[in-house]
From TrEMBL:
The protein's name in its UniProt record: Protocatechuate 4,5-dioxygenase, alpha chain
GO MF terms, alphabetically ordered: dioxygenase activity
Domain named Extradiol ring-cleavage dioxygenase LigAB LigA subunit: residues: 13-75
Coiled coil (residue ranges): none
UniProtKB keywords: Dioxygenase, Oxidoreductase
Upper classification of the organism: Bacteria, Bacillati, Actinomycetota, Actinomycetes, Micromonosporales
Pfam family, any one: LigA
UniProt keyword annotation of Membrane present: no
Organism: Micromonospora coriariae
Amino acid sequence: MGLEHFNPLLRANDLVQDLKWDDELRARFETSEEEVLSSYPITEDEREAIRGRDFRRLYELGLHPYLLSQLARLIYGTGEKAGTSAAATALIQSLLGDDYERYMAARE
């Protein structure tokens, strides 16, 4: 996953950065996600992808790959082992789509 889709003007990049650094905003996002989403000048496509936890779509729209993982962690929390948390699993499933099961089978 490279930067070929990265769009520095995509406002969802700002939202994720703000969620990362602003504890109050993050707490509001956890309890009133829709309120936070509506307070940012993001497109309906961005809102829909965030609501649906569709990280692949966010990547295609231009969210920075680093921020994808940050958003997954903010939404799902973190795990004890690298790559085994709910955040990592959700991110990988979304990005790989139909190839997820094949990817997991190849890791065993």
